[in-house]
Amino acid sequence: MAGCLALCGCGKLVGLNTPATPLAQIQLQVTGDFAKVQQVDPLGRASQLRVALVWGAQWQPEPFCFLPAELAAAEAVITAGCPDSFRFVPDRDGADIPVTPGVTATITLTDLPGADVMVGDVTARIAYASLVVYDDRNGNGTLDFHHPPRHRRNNEPDVVEDAGAPATWDIVYGASFISMTQPDQRLAYREGSFDNSINGIAFYPRYGCGEPLPAFSILSAGGFSAADAVAASLQHQLPEETPPCVQATLDQAVVTIPLGDSTDVVLKEIACTVNDAGGTTFYIRPPDSAPDLSISACVGFPHIPGDDAGVATGVQLVANAPSAACQSTNHYILRGCNDDPSCPVPTWDLTATPPKWWPCTISP
């Protein structure tokens, strides 16, 4: 084989350095006055606005963040520590280009989305992407994702995954798909048929809309309210999408991305991954010294209607986990395991000797 390659190229490999044929080209335009929303760089660097095409991750929010709060104090923890339960969550950067507000640009894809970002099987699967506008603060030409605080088992020190100082972190100024509760334009890539069952359309759902076009297309929709989404979910249904819903080919659509307030919590979370895509809660052994409990609450364990098997009883202490990059919550329990507060053989049991700072009623 090596001899054939050498002969066919007359001693030089042919075709390996030629430009790849574009598979898709997306027209986009960033709108708004950047000077009104721009954050001044503390290091004096000029802004480098770029647009990243980001494929979305399939995920579920943890029940505490999704279900209605039982106490006002718990609602405060949800507001401070839980990300938007209906937000777009990044998985992988697919392409990246510089952009100028008010000037139409083209982002080119030379690769299909990988199987890891597609939902479904080989007969019917789909991937969705958001176009994200950001200031490339570290100049590496790609949108850097952040990770919420992650605890090792048995309450060992947190895993630190965000390298560099906050002054070098990229700043998100807008996205075509921010949250399902907001109007969005998303890039879709469909292979095979489209699964119209609740299992198939529950991936960033557009319930009541037409099927995405085969291959690449741009989908537009008006979103739905968080209250409608919670009510529908408790009935094992999906919320109706506010019309109009539009399917367009790439030649027919221009994705418009308005610049927004980069300090907006939901917009900042566009660059945040999730620790557990399955919505599993990670429980923590209380430390000897009191953690930051400025925003905290003593609450029971969440109960999803219809799930009556293995529901934990007792009290947990929930508190927001202060982080400069991503919102998250800490769940402290006196007895249990990291993945189960009612495990039959607990990893720790402090019910007889709780920390002096423990503020919750001790369960029997």
Any descriptors?
364 residues; alpha+beta; eight-stranded antiparallel beta sheet; four-stranded mixed beta sheet; 19 strands; globular
Please state the overall shape, judged from the principal axes of the Cα atoms: globular
Beta content:
25-35%
Mean pLDDT: 85
Give the uncertain stretches in residue-range form. 1-16
**Strand segment tally:** 19
Order of helices and strands: HEHEHHEEEEEEEEHEHEEHEEEEEE
Largest sheet, in brief, is: 8 strands, antiparallel
- Share of helix among residues? 10-25%
Cα-based radius of gyration, to the nearest Å: 23 Å
Count of DSSP helices?
A: 7
Alpha carbon gap, first and last residue: 72 Å
* SS-derived structural category: alpha+beta
Structural description of this entry:
- With 364 residues, the protein is an alpha+beta fold.
- It has a domain of 242 residues.
- Helix content is 12%, strand content 27%.
- It contains 7 helices and 19 strands.
- The strands form 5 sheets. Strands 2, 3, 5, 6, 9, 10, 11 and 12 form an 8-stranded antiparallel beta sheet that branches. Strands 14-17-16-15 form a 4-stranded mixed beta sheet. A 3-stranded mixed beta sheet has the order 4-1-13, with no helix packed on it.
- Strand 7 and strand 8 form a beta hairpin.
- The protein is globular, with a radius of gyration of 23 Å.
- The protein starts with a helix and ends in a 15-residue tail after the last strand.
Quick synopsis:
With 364 residues, the protein is of the alpha+beta class. The protein is built from seven helices and 19 strands.
Outline the secondary-structure elements:
Layout: H1 2-8, E1 24-31, H2 34-37, E2 49-56, H3 63-66, H4 72-81, E3 90-98, E4 105-109, E5 119-121, E6 124-135, E7 150-151, E8 158-159, E9 171-175, E10 184-192, H5 198-201, E11 215-221, H6 226-234, E12 246-248, E13 254-258, H7 265-268, E14 283-284, E15 296-299, E16 316-320, E17 329-332, E18 335-336, E19 348-349
Parallel strand pairs: 1-13, 14-17
Antiparallel strand pairs: 1-4, 2-3, 2-6, 5-6, 6-9, 6-10, 7-8, 10-11, 11-12, 15-16, 16-17, 18-19
